[in-house]
Specification:
The complex is a heterodimer. By secondary structure, chain A is α/β, with parallel strands linked by helices. Chain A is built from nine helices and ten strands. In chain A, 37% of the residues lie in helices and 25% in strands. Chain B has a two-stranded antiparallel sheet with strand order 1-2. Classes of the chains: A alpha/beta, B mainly alpha.
Chain lengths: 245, 265
């Protein structure tokens, strides 16, 4: 479903230093697979996610999603993005639109659905994430956990084939993390292909098919959650796990 | 909110009373004889206009005619300034160096030359080439002038919107234009209403400069009336008051819009 081949990505900082975010990065993610990416900050995990829907441009290499080389100049990236839902650390809900409008906007202008259909889909998803009663309020009136659940519903409304979560629970108060993780777990069990950057090791252990540990733009170690948390082989992995567990 | 409005009105009334009494006592020193009774007919009068149009009816006086022209030219200019400013503001942030450079050149050129010169150039040069009427030339000059300032305000507004908004829109499959139209610009406009209001109040007052190309706006008509009657104080006070009516209405309108848009905060 997703294949990254020899991806290089370098950022230029404001003082013109070069920071290597991805170094010869390759991986495959199968349909229905739930992959959790962990690693210290600056290890390139968020960059990798953002490269998967071309929010970043890459320096070299290729990323193929569903048979489409998304960095090909002939590819309409908007069509690719319709199929990849993304959930951000800071939710990024549209503050000037109500919860319902947040979820229907892209359905109307991108998918070309009519208003009734879009509203029906939105309500179904709000029920799924457990906040149907909030459809007419503005994001600022919601708690962080509720906002993130709306953001998930907004992404799901496009009926994407892949869902990406970029530290979706990192900006939440501790008591709200659970409600968002529950929604993510439900999705995982329904067979959604998911790429999840997170620090929630409980989530990784419970639902992931594979855990990828990244450092300095490369994969240091990957394997099942079982392998990962019981006998990691690399020193770097052991050190990281000992710091966060 | 009600407290603010009330204190604003109180302040305004106080200022008017203070100003009026100052001028009253100041003019006593120069034995000025007030003729306020001449003013109402400069606004509205009942009667015939000329031998050709002799039917007696309610007609607009000289100052009211000027008021209407100023109002018209201001409304048109504000409308076009918003369009120009939005386009320029977006172009200033373009990835395309040529687009970015041209929009910057426009802003710098217009902001750094006097409006009066621009009005002359547009009327006498561009206007003669394109056979523009004085009204069209005046509107064009004011729109282009205000458009440069509005462009910078719009640019700042767009830049003030968190880049996550654009990313979220794009990640849902929206194109750049769609994301701008539905997500970024509505939020930016809400944020730039206060500086825009200031800019448009300036524009209404700057519109008095179009009298130099023989447009009979409020200021022009005021000068004519003064030349004819010598009631300089009364007429200029009335002219000032009529400008105040326009600008104050605009202020109130923008505050109303601001309150309306604040519901999502």
């Amino acid at each position: 479903m997703i294949e990254a081949r020899n991806v290089h990505k370098t950022f230029k900082t404001s003082d013109r230093r070069e920071v290597k975010a991805l170094v010869d990065f390759s991986t495959r993610i199968e349909k229905g697979e739930v992959v959790v990416i962990i690693g210290p900050s600056g290890s390139g995990k968020s960059t990798f996610l953002r490269c998967l829907n071309r929010l970043e441009e890459i320096d070299s290499g290729e990323i193929i999603i569903d048979g489409i080389n998304i960095y090909d100049k002939k590819v309409n990236i908007n069509e690719v993005r319709e199929e990849i839902g993304m959930v951000f650390q800071l939710f990024n809900l549209f503050p000037h639109k109500t919860v319902l409008e947040n979820i229907t906007l892209a359905q109307l202008v991108v998918r070309g659905r009519n208003k009734e259909e879009a509203t029906e889909i939105a309500r179904g998803l709000l029920r799924k994430v457990g906040i149907l009663e909030k459809e007419n309020v503005y994001p600022s009136q919601l708690s962080g956990g509720q906002q993130q659940r709306v953001a998930i519903a907004r992404a799901l409304a496009m009926h994407p084939k892949i869902m990406m979560f970029d530290e979706a629970t990192s900006a939440l108060d501790p008591e709200m993390i659970g409600e968002v993780l529950d929604v993510m777990k439900t999705l995982a069990r329904e067979g959604m292909t998911m790429v999840v950057v997170t620090h929630e090791m409980g989530f990784a252990r419970e639902v992931s098919d594979r855990v990828v540990f990244m450092d300095e733009g490369q994969i240091v170690e990957e394997g099942t959650a079982e392998h990962f948390f019981t006998n990691p082989t690399h020193e770097r992995t052991k050190l990281f796990l000992s710091q966060i567990l | 909110m009600t407290f603010n409005k009330r204190s604003l009105v109180t302040l305004l009334i106080l200022a008017i009373i203070l100003g009026a009494s100052y001028y009253f006592f100041a003019t006593r020193g120069i034995t000025y004889i007030w003729h306020w009774e001449k003013i109402p007919q400069m606004l509205f009068y009942h009667g015939a206009k000329s031998a050709q149009d002799a039917v007696p009816r309610l007609r607009m006086g000289i100052l009211m005619i000027g008021f209407v022209l100023t109002l018209k030219i201001s409304v048109f200019s504000i409308f076009f300034a918003i369009i120009i400013g939005t386009v320029v503001g977006i172009c200033r942030l373009s990835d395309e160096p040529v687009t970015r450079g041209l929009s910057l050149a426009y802003v710098e050129l217009i902001r750094n030359t006097p409006l009066l010169v621009q009005i002359y150039i547009i009327y006498f040069f561009v206007g003669s080439l394109l056979r523009l009427s004085a009204f069209a030339a005046g509107t064009a000059a004011l729109s282009i002038f205000a458009g440069a300032y509005v462009g910078e305000i719009v640019r700042a507004g767009i830049q003030s919107i968190h880049k996550g908004q654009m990313e979220a829109s794009r990640s849902l499959g929206m194109g750049y234009a769609q994301a701008m139209r539905y997500v970024v610009l509505p939020q930016a406009f809400k944020r730039i209403i206060p500086p825009l209001a200031g800019q448009f109040i300036s524009l209404i007052k700057d519109s008095s400069l179009v009298s130099v190309i023989a447009l009979a706006d409020l200021m022009f008509q005021g000068q004519q009336a003064v030349a004819r009657t010598y009631h300089a104080f009364e007429i200029y006070f009335t002219v000032a008051f009529l400008y105040l009516v326009m600008t104050f209405t605009l202020s109130m309108a923008t505050q109303y819009i601001e309150r309306r848009l604040a519901i999502s905060d």
